[in-house]
């Protein structure tokens, strides 16, 4: 048995671990996965992708190790599994092929929903009027999941969630995320719309933004804007914030009740320290692999990002919300925002910068979670994932109550970190985490370990200032 022949088995096991609720069955699945790892003994994968070929990874492992203090054996096994499943080539043709394989492996016909939750497939019309790009044809329909609890309570205060899935803008679907969207519907007692928005390279930016806006307008035909909460993980979190900024740029349309980003991907240029420093811990490392040395061969000088057809789009605030240039009166128009991140993930610092620099006085709540990796909310065997989802529910409930009382101005801007064991601490200056990371980055730069990394980041236009201390 070799790696290629076990790809399908790995993907099926990954899908099973996300769907299972029984701790006994979960243990069986983990045991089966451990057995599969045995067959990989001669081709064993390190927790760091190609660690023996990338000097920076060797250095980081020496500095930090490859695990976090609170990780259990299950955490480590699931992390290794995710790195295997998500090790996707960077070329457009290979990504298209990988998407087809992933869709097959994840079981495109699986309709798993918690008890009392039902699923229906619907079509959402693409609205040609949202298209502002000259020469772009935007028409047709978007397939979507409509998920609701039964019996459904149709009231004027019913919570409606527009959920935008993650996948780096190139992968993922409403199928891959049913484990979390079904749970959201049940936990929140909400109806959830999950569109299959356009993905690159077949449908690059700004198709995803337009599909998100079209889906939001579809809901506005039936519900009040304050009932609707836009939520997404990873790229879906970035898309949620990008859609919010599109609405800010088109003030004739109403804002949703709130926006929720689970480890949102908001900086396509990855200009922040954690993108380097958390490489030993996060499974996203498997997706970038040898990006810093190989990326020039995969794409072109004019197109550094598969999501965007040109580099100018990549620093547009719809694609990278972190680069949003706020005006004096902008923040009053924005709805309450909740941002959650894991402190061991690659995207940690861009989430912090979004709170501290992009939206410095907006109604934003920032929540960090100790030793957690990217989109930990979707992972089983993790007590803090349950805490995080409860916090999302509390956020929605608080915002709706304040809105009903006409006291939304009383929403408190806060930043906290939730610790394993149930306690939490206030982060009085979360940006200090980024600043401390910058100091370590300078040490690595002095050792000439960031040559390829800096080469890519220097393609960032001079007028983009967020993350600039890292680039200098």
TrEMBL record:
Family (UniProt): Belongs to the 'GDXG' lipolytic enzyme family.
Ranges annotated as spanning the membrane: 18-39
Record InterPro entries: AB_hydrolase_3, AB_hydrolase_fold, GDXG_lipolytic_enzyme, Lipase_GDXG_HIS_AS
Name this protein carries in UniProt: Alpha/beta hydrolase fold-3 domain-containing protein
Residues in Alpha/beta hydrolase fold-3 domain copies: 161-377
Domain of life, source organism: Eukaryota
Keywords: Hydrolase, Membrane, Transmembrane, Transmembrane helix
MF annotations from Gene Ontology: hydrolase activity
This protein's record includes keyword Hydrolase: yes
N-terminal signal peptide: none
Pfam families: Abhydrolase_3 (PF07859)
Keyword Ribosomal protein: no
């Amino acid at each position: 048995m070799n790696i290629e022949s076990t790809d399908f088995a790995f993907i099926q096991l990954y899908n099973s671990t996300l769907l299972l609720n029984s701790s006994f069955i979960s243990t069986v699945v983990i045991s089966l996965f451990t057995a599969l790892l045995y067959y990989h003994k001669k081709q064993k994968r390190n927790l760091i992708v190609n660690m023996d070929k990338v000097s920076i990874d060797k250095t980081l492992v020496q500095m930090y190790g490859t695990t976090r203090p609170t990780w259990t054996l299950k955490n480590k096994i699931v992390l290794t599994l995710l790195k295997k499943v998500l090790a996707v080539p960077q070329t457009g043709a290979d990504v298209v092929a990988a998407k087809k394989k992933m869709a097959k492996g994840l079981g495109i016909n699986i309709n798993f929903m918690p008890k009392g939750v039902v699923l229906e497939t619907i079509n959402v019309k693409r609205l040609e009027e949202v298209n502002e790009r000259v020469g772009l044809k935007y028409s047709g329909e978007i397939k979507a999941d409509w998920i609701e609890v039964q019996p459904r309570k149709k009231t004027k205060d019913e919570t409606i969630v527009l959920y935008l899935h993650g996948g780096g803008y190139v992968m993922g679907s409403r199928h891959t995320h049913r484990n979390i969207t079904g749970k959201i519907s049940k936990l929140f007692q909400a109806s959830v719309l999950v569109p299959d928005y356009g993905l690159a390279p077949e449908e690059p930016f700004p198709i995803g933004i337009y599909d998100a806006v079209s889906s939001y307008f579809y809901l506005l035909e039936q519900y009040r804007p304050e009932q609707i909460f836009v939520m997404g993980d990873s790229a879906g979190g970035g898309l949620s914030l990008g859609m919010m900024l599109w609405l800010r740029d088109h003030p004739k349309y109403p804002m949703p009740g709130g926006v929720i980003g689970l480890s949102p991907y908001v900086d396509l240029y990855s200009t922040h320290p954690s993108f380097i420093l958390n490489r030993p811990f996060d499974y996203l490392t498997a997706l970038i692999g040898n990006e810093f040395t190989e990326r020039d061969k995969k794409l072109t000088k004019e197109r550094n990002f598969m999501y965007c057809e040109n580099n100018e789009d990549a620093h547009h605030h719809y694609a990278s919300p972190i680069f949003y240039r706020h005006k004096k009166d902008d923040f009053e128009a924005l709805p309450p925002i909740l941002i959650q991140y894991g402190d061991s993930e690659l995207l940690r610092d861009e989430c912090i910068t979004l709170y501290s620099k992009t939206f410095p006085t907006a109604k934003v709540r920032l929540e960090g979670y100790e030793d957690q990796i990217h989109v930990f909310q979707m992972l089983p065997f993790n007590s803090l994932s349950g805490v995080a989802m409860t916090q999302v529910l509390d956020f929605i409930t608080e915002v709706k109550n304040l809105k009903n009382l006409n006291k939304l101005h009383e929403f408190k801007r806060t930043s906290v970190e939730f610790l394993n064991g149930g306690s939490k601490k206030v982060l009085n200056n979360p940006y200090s985490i980024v600043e401390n990371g910058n100091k370590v980055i300078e040490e690595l730069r002095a050792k000439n370990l960031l040559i390829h990394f800096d080469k890519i980041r220097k393609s960032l236009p001079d007028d983009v200032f967020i993350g600039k201390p890292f680039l200098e």
